[in-house]
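ok here's Metallophosphoesterase, seq below lol
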Amino acid sequence: MDPIELGFTPRPPVPWLAPLLLLSTGVRTLLAILFGAYLDKRELQNALPGDVLEEPGTDGELWLDYVADLGDGFNSTYSVAYLLAQPELDVDGRALPRGQVLVMGGDQVYPTASAPAYEDRCKGPYTAAMPCPPDGSPQPTLYAVPGNHDWYDGLTAFLRLFARQRDASLGGWRTKQARSYFAVRLPADWWLLALDEQFGAYVDDPQLNYFEAAARQFGPDAKIILAVPEPSWVKAAVEKSAEAYDAVDYFVRSIIAPTGARVRLMLSGDLHHYARYSGTDRELVTCGGGGAYLYPTHQLPSEIIVPPPDTLARRSSQSRPYELTATYPDAPTSRRLGWGIFHRLPTRNAGFAALIGGLQTLLMLAMAGIATQQRNETGLRLFSIPLVTILVVTLLGAAFFAKPPTAVGKRSWRHIILGGGHGLAQIALAALGTWLWLMTPFPDWPWPFSLLIAIAVYAPLAGLAGSQVVALYLLIAGRFGVNINELYAGQGIDDVKSFLRMHIAADGALTVYPVAVDRICREWRPNPSAPDDRPWLEPAQNLVIRPADKPFVLR
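and the structure came out like this:
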């Protein structure tokens, strides 16, 4: 595990509620949204090769793997990479060969894109899992779709890693794409199309022109696998944002539908779980279990209408119902895991607990100063913010936490009521802490000893208590669809992972095998004497896999 030996630094999971990380990620998100239109590299990609790619498979058959949201902590990312690199997996008694094609479906790095982050969180783990092409068989191909985290540097690092023309490989996988989007001809009249539609309601003209040229090769019997960065079919329903699906629908009806081809399968990551919606015409699959923290499934609607009937688009495809067929984890397990927020929040987000402790200490000092009428003491004046100011800051902070400015969707009364209630709960905790503080002899100690005791003793205890108030708030708010992401991001659950293994048979049938990993490996053994194409690190614990859903067949 020495970085000098591995060539990269295994990173721990991202502490998603760390204050500095929240601030930097929010700023990068805002900058990407504000300046993305001016620095959009999709317009520049028109100068890059626009070839339609081909993966003929072997004897008219092809095995294809799909993984998304993978560039987080080493243990979870490498556990999935190790399984994908194995020559064969036994899933419920079926022997499933390694994919001849690997598709990374978005967010190959967290929290923001950069060359070092890609090296440590994506390229390094996957190179360690399969350092060289497999001996005695064709080299598998890797394609990648950019997610929102890949976009936070304007796609610079993404294109350098996945679209390079010199040394076009990532470990034992070779890379072929020249742009952030691609069209790949597969056996039996199947096609894989990957759309890059980040940060905008419209798909850029160079991208549309590229796919329009590719679509001229479609026959009326062509069947499409469409990979997109986010499950807009779900977000349109859950976030009540009908326009979320407009870009995908425009692409389907303007580029694919005129050819007579059918979109039989839509794939996406972004939400870190497995979920499948089934309709009469296609399957809509979210599979974002490649390494990032678990996102819940119990809040998913049992039925969605796609496209949303209330879209403002002047033209849209015919709306059809889709039923939630399967999820991983299942709803009871997802709901139960939410209760882990009480112990995971302070242990996995120490910086956040410290921030709450600091806020509680400032509140206590302000309240204690008024209660004891010690405003003339120099030390207290220097380190005690006026009570009204800190109360306003606490309430505003709780309100923004309930609905950050960079979050999608509209602010509603749920956010105001729950956020305000959370702020009042923190203030009530501070009042209780003030009462307990005044019961001790510490307030009578001479300056600066009383302040030092407050910082050394009161702040850590208040941070722990305040983080439990936050945990209780998140659990309650999650029941009303507020701060669902924070409830699970704050826990950083790195177990419960998933990916897809797909098989195109010579007769044209596409079988999808969703694979579940209930528990990742956390201990690894070096493997220095293994063949060149074998993993550098072997699991010291059993990596058990099972079906995340029953296999389903598309024709």
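fwiw The radius of gyration is 26 Å. kinda neat tbh
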